[in-house]
Recover the amino acids of this structure.
């Protein structure tokens, strides 16, 4: 999972782990703070019988990251760009979500991540009356758990179609 800071990556990570991780417990701390996640956390989850995947909660992107921090996060971002599938988590309730979406996807392009591996996951949909239309996206509320089954179905379909290798 990748996305701008405070988009809800850690909250989504916890929801996915609680649904599909053997412990059923939150795996990372999720809080509405800048740079809440500083280290990548990876867990194995089960999508269905015989279908296990690894998911990673990554550090949030930020525009105009101070130069001395770029090097610290570069290896994490490069690793994320090499993933078989990227869930780009976007805070749809943020008035600047389009600008932040473009920042993240520009960095991913610069790191060599193919666009066809990115699934846009619009989070915090519970904060809006009506979601915008985007056929290349999924709308969720990690807080309320809505849209999670549809998200897991999309990931499962990509696996079934042989899109990614495990």
């Amino acid at each position: 999972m990748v996305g701008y800071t405070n988009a809800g990556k850690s909250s989504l990570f916890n929801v996915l782990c609680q649904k599909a991780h053997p412990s059923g417990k939150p795996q990372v701390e999720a809080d509405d703070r800048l740079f809440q996640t500083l280290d990548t956390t990876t867990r194995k989850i089960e999508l269905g019988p015989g279908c296990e995947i690894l998911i990673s909660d990554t550090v949030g992107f930020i525009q105009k990251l101070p130069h001395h921090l770029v090097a610290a996060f570069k290896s994490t971002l490069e690793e994320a760009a090499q993933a078989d599938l990227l869930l780009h988590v976007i805070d749809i309730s943020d008035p600047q979500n389009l600008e932040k979406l473009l920042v993240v996807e520009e960095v991913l392009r610069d790191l060599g991540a193919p666009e066809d591996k990115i699934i846009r996951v619009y989070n915090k949909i519970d904060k809006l009356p009506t979601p915008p239309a985007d056929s290349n996206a999924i709308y969720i509320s990690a807080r309320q758990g809505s849209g999670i089954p549809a998200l897991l179905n999309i990931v499962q379909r990509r696996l079934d179609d042989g899109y990614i290798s495990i």
User: Anything to note?
Assistant: The chain has one domain: 2-160. Helices lie at 9-20, 67-81, 97-110, 148-160. Residues 33-37 have pLDDT under 50 and may be disordered.
